[in-house]
Design brief:
The protein has 112 residues and is an all-alpha fold. Helix content is 70%, strand content 0%. The protein contains 6 helices and no strands. Helix 1 packs antiparallel against helix 3 (33-48), helix 2 (18-28) crosses helix 3 and helix 3 (33-48) packs antiparallel against helix 5.
Length: 112
């Protein structure tokens, strides 16, 4: 079984390749871009729920990360309504902003 530190590193590594993973899913499935983004957001939220990850974060770090993932979930719900199908997606700029926000640990998160 992986140590907590390795699990946290896995999360951060997954976040760092999220753009590629979202694009792969979008190209190989019938999912809309928001749904592909939602897949990656679900992974981030799942990791944040692991006791082994929670034990490596301060209460403040965990609180901030959970608040940020919650805000992203709210944005995702709006995106799914606005872009329900695969034919139309958010602008590249909007996609980039959202992908950057997947890094719920970023110090400059509120700038995105």
């Amino acid at each position: 079984m992986a140590s907590g530190k390795n699990v946290l590193e896995e999360l951060k590594s997954g976040i760092s390749v999220s753009e590629t993973e979202i694009q792969k899913e979008f190209e190989t499935t019938g999912n809309s871009w928001p749904n592909c983004f939602g897949s990656m957001l679900s992974v981030v939220k799942m990791y944040l729920g692991l006791p082994s990850v929670q034990g490596l974060l301060t209460v403040n770090q965990l609180t901030i990360a959970l608040e940020r993932s919650g805000k992203l979930t709210e944005e995702l719900l709006k995106l799914r309504k606005k872009y329900p199908g695969k034919k139309k997606s958010p602008s590249k700029r909007s996609q980039q902003r959202l992908i950057k926000k997947l890094d719920v640990f970023a110090e400059d998160w509120d700038r995105f």
